[in-house]
Amino acid sequence: MAKLNLSLKGLQIKNPVKVDEQTYSLKEIAQRTWDWDTVVKGSHNTNCSYSMACNMNLYVKDGVVIREEQVGNYPAPNAPGVPDYNPKGCQKGVCYADRMYDAARLKYPLKRIGVRGEGKWQRISWDQALTEIADTMIDVLAQDGNDSILRLGSSSFGGSSQSLEAMNFALGIPISSGGPEIGDEHPGAALSTGKSLFGGSADNWYHADIILVWGTGGPYTHLANWHFIPEARYNGSKIVSINPDYNSSAPFADLWIPVNIGTDAAFALSMAQVIVQEDLYKKDFLREQTDLPLLVREDTRKFLTEKDMRRGGKEDQFYFYDTKSKKITEASRMTLKLDGLAPALEGEYEVKTLGGQVKVRPVFEYIRKKLQDYTPEKAQAITGVAPEVSRQLAREIAAAKGVVAISTFLWGKFYHGDLIQRSQMLLFALCGHFGRPGAGYDAWSMFLPDTALAGYARRGRDELLTASGHDPKYNQWRVDGYTDEMIVYQYMNEAQLSGLLYNYQLLYYFHAGQQEVHKKYNSWDPYLKRPVDEYMTEAIKKGWQNVVPRIGKDPKVIIEGGGSFLRRDRRSEYLMNVLLPKVKLLVTLDFRMGTTALYSDYVLPVASSYEKFQVVSICMEHPVLHIFNKAVEPLAEAKNEWEISCLLGKKIEQRAKERGILSFTDTKGQQRRLDNLYSKVTSGGIYTEEDQESVSRDYYMNATNVDKLEWEDYKEQGYAAYTGVGKSTYLGFACDVNPNEPVSALGWHVNNKVIYPTQTRRMQFYIDHDWFLEFGEELPTHKDNPPIGGNYPLMLTGGHARWSVHSSWADHALILRLQRGAPLMFMNIKDAESRGLKDNDEVEVFNDFGRFQIHISASPSVKPGQCIIYHSWENFQFRGRKHFKSALASPINPIELVGGFYHIKPRSTYHGQPGGCDRGTRVEVKKA
Amino acid sequence: MAALTKQVEVVTAAQARAASRSETYQLLASSFRFPAPDNFESIKAGNIRDRLQQIVPHLPYSFSTEQMPAGTVDLKFEEFQSLYIGLFEVGKSGTAPCPLYEGCYGGVRSAIMAELLAFYHFFGVRPSQQEPRELPDHLSLELEFMHVLTFKEAEASVEGKKLEAYLKAERDFLKRHLAGFAAAVRSRSGQSKAPFFSDMIALTERFCSSDLAYLSGQIHG
After folding, report:
1. Residues of A numbered 618-657 whose beta carbons fall under 8 angstroms of chain B's beta carbons: which are they?
2. What is the pLDDT of residue B206?
3. End-to-end CA separation in angstroms for chain A
4. What is the pLDDT of residues A445-483, one digit of tens each?
5. Could B93 and A98 be called an inter-chain contact, meaning their C-beta atoms sit closer than 8 Å?
6. Nearest 10 degrees: Cα torsion A383, A388, A390, A393
7. Whole-number Å distance between alpha carbons of A784 and A782
């Protein structure tokens, strides 16, 4: 051994070397761990939509993020004494660097070489991956059409403009309409207001007299903004937690009301009954803002309309009884201003119609009668809430200057969640708690830049901006008094019905075995008068809903990115056994090996949040638009989504030319070219695949509703404040947004008297659609949660977890160390004891639909009869990969199939379409 | 302080001992890099095993050659690569059974990487910025860093400089990082269906442990 060579592959010599190595000591090394090259502002999609994106400082050394911390540079509110948003962050965000570098990180394209899910992979080049994917896509486009390719997941991981949407639109590949996949929707709020989303900022809570934390896990969900709650409490606000279990919000509350599971409609209506009976309601608000004075025919139970009284009359011209003129009077369709009129809320009137004399009464009269079924004493049998508690809270809500309800997507996950939310909205309307600081109902408080190019927002916004010159309907709508908000919704509905967007529940109904589930378990809902399939057939035949792919065709290609449908969606076994065998090609874009990636044919590694530019399209409860800066290069061969989209578009174009398939016929019979795809994806060649920063910059600069900083200043600050609602779905807030001021939705309606986007152009509690009448749901009412899963004694609920929220952290070692480290089901300690179970036992949970095994936490904080599994565990964390969602049948409630009816029709996102319903699923438990 | 040279002439027995350790670390490091066709052929031909058997007698301590890595004669390159991916990169449960990153075995990953970078920079090296870039706590980098330190030790010996700083750094690095890391990887590799890799892991763990014991006997404080 005469010579020793220094052979470096993974390391390289660093020049210049300035250190005297003879001074080596561990102390020297320890001090040098606090060296870094740069500090960059960054953020991440960590905590669902709630609290998503917090401004972080990223410390970079040698191209590696070695630590992160909250920045704390959000400005103070304008009002003195009001808390600010600093320091915003949570335990997930401050270990994101750990997550992005952990062992599940994907580094290069993988091709499956075993059976799906076996975990046998071959590393392939990007070129090979894109070529093989492109070839299969071209085959399917040519043979089956564009609706056999589906884009699952969301654009949240890539930023709306920077993901695959441009390629999807160019090819007509349908994209998800969003939240109905898992019941992430506010159906009752939408039915009552016509809006897909609206809400307030977190600092709006601070101004409330009473804060109702109703059906949400409090700090588990709203972690980064939750501090406003104790701060409000110290300021004198009353905090009321209304949740069956003593959940994470309860320790912060002055009052915890353990309402029975799924009975919140009855509880809300019992308080409404007190408020009406004791004459505590705000009559002026109801007369002006709601449909409560509008007259309903006693014979047909339909609204009295102009069509009833005059041939050729409008179907949507409604009436009230004016107590001043003592006449039946037209309700204005253009404004909520009453202009001296005084609509009656009470009484019974005779009207001459084309069919003869009929009796009519204001909606309020019907409601008052309905509420007689919900006196606190009667409601107690349903809700378990003592009458004196309901009465006291009702009186306090009625007397308060402002009340806010912090709600999440829970209600969309209940089979009758629409009724629950309609009842809550009624309670708030009776007291006029909308449209001013310290008041409001949060029905998805999502702030959006109006360049949001995710499919659901793009269709409305883009078309609104260009429609006046092109679309004859536009002028017609304007003449008819349509607001921007209403027109956006029209275009979104058109996009949905055109097949550009698809609904997960309908996809699964026809393509993943859900139809058979419904046939087998139709008896679960005792209120149904017909089989679910009959309602479904009617809804599709009438064009209310649209199924993608068309019935009779199979989905052939699924491209998943920004989600993980095999983990996230209910009925896991059906997805694996019915849907997947139909799919020729499953491609997942992810930064880590999650459940869907594991079952994919190709896995494409995506840059993490610190490895790309991104303007965060969604932010909840905090009206600022954050930015991700590219702090470091993507690990190994990972690429950002924009680059992947461009390269795939380029490859499809190349292979199409090579194979002589220059176009295909889309589902509308139109020819779509493949030989110019790259140009379409890159906005006519404005950008290249290298231009992700430029795309992000333009996305920010083109928004009309965000404070305009110089791009470099924006990158340095890490966020920009919203200055308005812009021209997108966010119009649903219908209020001014001023930096450093609390946001309270619906101000334009309440204060400026702008009409609502509903059938009656008012906040609407009576729905005279035939199906609503058939179901007995024309008014808010309570219905028992059906025994989904069969006749078993325990009810399974869930929610955001303390430690993970979404699956990005579900299997992360650091976070798992803070808990028991494996899937866990919480159940009441007495329920456990009565089954011979003790804490941490592994149990089998089962119902008629499925079974799985899990450990239990026996806890006194859980309501007797309740089991709780917080999401979002990965399938492979369960024994035999049998996820707890195997036991969630998640049936469709046919009332959600209603469409073609004014404000009740599918429109992306989160509105007028069926959503997943699993809360309260019945199960039994035994020791495994 | 001069920049690293690429080669030193080894003359004395002490230099030969350091050199044998250095080359062993270099060979071990090469075994854990992502498989490429050329290193697969080398492994398949038994080159690593053969070279290790030549080096081991020069080590300053007794080291058994009985459990040298198995061959890979029955495998095609794609199968070999797939075994590497399934064992070290991604597994059936998201995470691979034996990830090759130290930070995946406890502690705070970012803090571990920060300290490794501090070690690397102090001794004049850094993770390569050329593809394929690896994170600082990849086993191949840590082994390669020990190759660097022992090379520097041999170089210092040739140049008549003090060795203490290198010996201490080697000991500290093994103690704080590599030895425990290798043992942790081995603890997870028991069920591996890839004999070459599990043998290499076992060999690495044994070697790091022996080297740490040797260094602990050489220096105090």
Report:
1. 633, 635-637
2. 95
3. 62
4. 888 888 755 444 454 555 555 555 678 888 899 999 999
5. no
6. -150
7. 7
A382–chain B Cβ distance below 8 A for any pair? no
Q: What is the pLDDT of residues B71-126, one digit of tens each?
A: 666 789 999 999 999 999 998 888 889 999 999 998 888 899 999 999 999 999 99
**From CA A781, how far away is CA A525, in angstroms rounded?**
16
Q: How far is CA A48 from the centre of its chain?
A: 9
φ/ψ of residue A41, rounded to 5: -75, 140
Q: Could you tell me the two tokens for A891? A: 């049936």
d(CA A296, CA A207): 38
| Contact residues on chain A for B8, CB-CB shorter than 8 A | 3-4
Check CB contact under 8 Å for A3 and B9: yes
Distance from CA of B95 to the nearest CA of A (A): 4
| Chain A neighbors of B141, CB-CB under 8 A | 10-11
Give first-to-last CA distance, chain B, whole Å: 24
Within A702-775, residue ranges assigned H as helices are: 711-717, 747-750, 770-774
**Residues A56, A43 contacting (CB under 8 angstroms):** yes
Q: Which of B19, B117, B133 sits opposite A4 (nearest CB)?
A: B19
Instruction: Check CB contact under 8 Å for A113 and B82.
Output: yes
Q: CA A785 → CA A265, A522, A527, B138, distances in Å?
A: 11, 14, 11, 53
Q: Do A814 and B7 lie within an 8 Å CB cutoff?
A: no
- Closest-CA residue of B relative to A112 is B82
List the Cα angle A376/A382/A386 in 5-degree steps.
40
Instruction: Tell me which residue in A11, A120, A874 faces B82 most closely, judged by beta carbons.
Output: A120
The CA distance from B120 to A66, in Å, is: 15
d(CA A713, CA A64): 24
Nearest residue to B78 (alpha-carbon basis) of A635, A114, A590: A114
Please enumerate in sequence order all residues whose Cβ is within 8 A of that of A470, keeping only pairs 6 or more positions apart, or say none: none
CA B192 to chain A, closest CA, distance in angstroms equals 14
* Residue pair A155/A562 in contact by the 8 Å Cβ criterion: yes
Q: Using alpha carbons only, what angle is made at residue A212 by residues A293 and A758, rounded to the nearest 5 degrees?
A: 35
Q: Quote the CA–CA distance of A800 and A682 in Å, as a whole number.
A: 37
Q: What is the pLDDT of residue A179?
A: 80
Average pLDDT over residues A658-687: 94
Strand ranges (E), A279-379: 295-297, 319-322, 327-330, 349-353, 356-362
C-alpha closest to that of A519 among A529, A509, A527? A509
Q: Which positions ≥6 away from A290 have C-beta within 8 Å?
A: A363, A429, A762, A763, A764, A765
CB atoms A21 and B34 under 8 Å: no
| Token pair 């602990």 in the structure block, residue | B216
d(CA A532, CA A551): 17
DSSP, residue by residue, A109-147: -EEE-SSTTS--EEE--HHHHHHHHHHHHHHHHHHT-GG
Say how far residue A38 (Cα) sits from the centre of its chain.
Answer: 36
Distance between CA atoms of A600 and A598, rounded to whole angstroms?
A: 6
Sheet of A356-362: strand order equals A295-297, A356-362, A349-353
- How do residues B54-69 score in pLDDT, each as one tens digit? 999 999 999 987 777 7
Residue A58 token pair: 């990223």
Those of residues 860-899 in A touching chain B at CB distance below 8 A are: 874, 876-877
Asked whether the beta carbons of residue A123 and residue B81 sit closer than 8 angstroms, the reply is yes
Contact state of B148 with A11 under an 8 Å Cβ cutoff: yes
A8–B168 CB contact, under 8 Å: no
